[in-house]
Design a protein that fits this description.
230 residues, mainly alpha, 10 helices, elongated, DUF3159 domain-containing protein, membrane
Length: 230
């Protein structure tokens, strides 16, 4: 299987991890330095998110993706300000990971693994990868690693949130972002490569299974017709 790329390269895992951790770290630092002020923490988090957004736009990232990341930080800050509970800044993260675990698991069950959907979109394949049985199976197996990633975060975040451990939530957010994302990308890539046959051309070249109707038509056309009686 000729495949020089990795999932980390295709999906920009390091960049996404930086975007997720810097505002959260800024929130905790601002909250602590200002005497546990939610306003200060929220302000630092939003400033960090704005700086990252500016940097991403300057380097040619799509505005839509940049704005979604900025909006997530702003919503998290507004939730904490609204409730007056500093730990609620991480509530959106907790819900998003629980929802992501469910969505990825459902996608596997219905045979539309989200890992395949995402990689297929990045590679411009649309849904052609689903017509490759080996690639579909590999994406389904690799997607279970992503389900596990989200469940690990929920298992760690939930008790910390229940205990109102703001600083620990910030540390967990950092520890369970880049290291966990890196491990998830590496393991799911290993699972995909192990699941594909040795002679498979790789993610960029799905081996398309022949459509049954087309196959039947072709067999019918190839079947020699009996000669008319003389």
């Amino acid at each position: 299987m000729a495949q020089p790329e990795s999932l980390a390269e295709l999906l920009n895992g390091r960049r996404a991890a930086v975007d997720a951790t810097v505002p959260a770290a800024g929130y905790v630092v601002g909250w602590l330095v200002a005497g546990r002020s939610i306003w200060a923490g929220a302000a630092v988090a939003v400033v960090c998110a704005l700086a990252i957004s500016w940097w991403r736009l300057r380097h040619g990232d799509k505005p839509r993706a940049v704005l979604i990341g900025l909006l997530g930080v702003c919503v998290a800050a507004l939730i904490a300000l609204r409730t007056g509970n500093a730990a609620d800044f991480f509530l959106l993260q907790l819900f998003s990971n629980a929802a992501s675990a469910l969505a990825w698991a459902v996608s596997i069950v219905i045979r539309w693994p989200l890992l395949g959907v995402i990689v297929g979109a990045v590679l411009g394949q649309k849904t052609r990868w689903r017509r490759d049985p080996a690639l579909l199976r590999a994406y389904m197996r690799g997607s279970w690693i992503w389900v596990l990633q989200y469940l690990i975060r929920v298992a760690v975040f939930l008790p910390l949130y229940a205990a109102d451990q703001v600083a620990a939530l910030g540390v967990a957010r950092i520890a369970l972002t880049w290291p966990l994302v890196a491990a998830c990308l590496a393991v799911s890539w290993w699972v995909i490569r192990r699941s594909l046959p040795a002679d498979h051309p790789g993610l960029r070249h799905p081996v398309l299974a022949e459509d049954p109707a087309t196959s039947a038509t072709r067999r019918s056309a190839d079947t020699p017709r009996p000669s008319p009686p003389e």
